[in-house]
Fold this sequence. Notes:
Blueprint: E1 11-14, E2 17-20, H1 24-27, E3 30-36, E4 47-49, H2 61-70, E5 74-76, E6 83-86, E7 92-94, E8 105-111
Antiparallel strand pairs: 1-2, 3-6, 3-8, 4-5, 4-7
Amino acid sequence: MRVESAGFGPWSIKAGVHHVQPPVSVLENMCTVRLHLDDCGEDNGPLKVVPGSHSRGLLDEPELARVVTAAPVELCCVPRGGAVVMRPLIAHASSSATRPGHRRVIHIEFANADLPWPLEWHARVSIARLSPRPVFRERVG
Length: 141
């Protein structure tokens, strides 16, 4: 649900879920994992990133344009089953595909803190609630 909170914005809706950009203090402590279900080569619209740009904080449009034109941009070509791990603050964008094909990605964002009330994460898994799985060993003899 959309709830106005200082420092959070702008708001959007993606796949029926409300999204909001948190402040830098939250983004600095997040990690994004993109799991590739399909091969993603140079012609299939790979993610483009500017290495190290996450250390500059949240960039406004003019600063982002300067960073992208001044620094080397790297393509994240990833095979099916591969992953990209990144900080959400890194300057990034998806390329346009030059050939038709699937580019399915599972995009997961991890954070290490609660949001200020009344905001809450859409889905939350507490590490403390996870129990270790039993290990089964083959009996010898």
